[in-house]
Fold this sequence. Notes:
Distance between the termini: 30 Å
Oligomer: single chain
Order of helices and strands: HHEHEHEEHEHEE
Number of helices: 6
CATH superfamily of the domain at 23-157: Vaccinia Virus protein VP39
CATH topology of the domain at 23-157: Rossmann fold
CATH class of the domain at 23-157: Alpha Beta
Bound molecules: S-adenosylmethionine
CATH architecture of the domain at 23-157: 3-Layer(aba) Sandwich
Strand order of the largest sheet: 3-2-1-4-5-7-6
Amino acid sequence: MKVMPTTFDAKAATWDEEPRRRAMAMDIVAAIVQRIPLTTGQRVLDVGCGTGLVGLPLAVVTKSVLGVDLSEGMVAKFKAKVQTAHQSGVTAEVRDLVSAPLLAGSIDVAVSAMAFHHIPDVDAMLRSIAGCVAPGGWVAIADLECEDGSFHDEPVPHLGFDPAGFLSNMQRAGFEAVSQERVHVMQKPPGGRSYPIFLAVARKL
Ligand SMILES: C[S@@+](CC[C@H](N)C(=O)[O-])C[C@H]1O[C@@H](n2cnc3c(N)ncnc32)[C@H](O)[C@@H]1O
């Protein structure tokens, strides 16, 4: 899929070097593993996968992960890490799931970390995810709680989300609500302002 270069392309090379990103991803992964019974062979989708800070640790259990992202730079970095770690069954591709959905029933567990506030039409993305997750499958989405706009240096479509409201959006897209909880608080800069991160978990009806 051909997409316009994104600001994330330039950030991909050094994305993993930021300790607060790694710490947040570790907490999100731990929260997902606690809430979803992951097993080998489950087909995991990581939406807005970036370099794979969340998707690749899950692949250690499931052995099967597809990352999708709009940034060619992020996808290239994800794939380079997969190659280094010899993780067969794990790949990433540049794909906008809204305009290019995956096959119905092709995914068992969909996850996403810190991508949804960059996605203009949240409901359309949730519907696309609901369309590819098999009945009984899971979705777990982590993102910023509502913030005052200070988290980013550039404009983004959403200044975080109300977690309960986000779970309602997931229900409207065709999921059954399971839980929503705060799973991490990022301090940016270190010792500075606090930005809580929620994880919303639901199951496909
Ligand atoms: C803040 S980064 C998070 C990356 C990764 N999930 C992590 O936790 O490190 C947001 C990512 O979402 C991607 N993104 C933004 N809009 C997207 C969309 N509509 N579809 C897929 N990826 C998207 C960006 O390219 C970027 O890689």
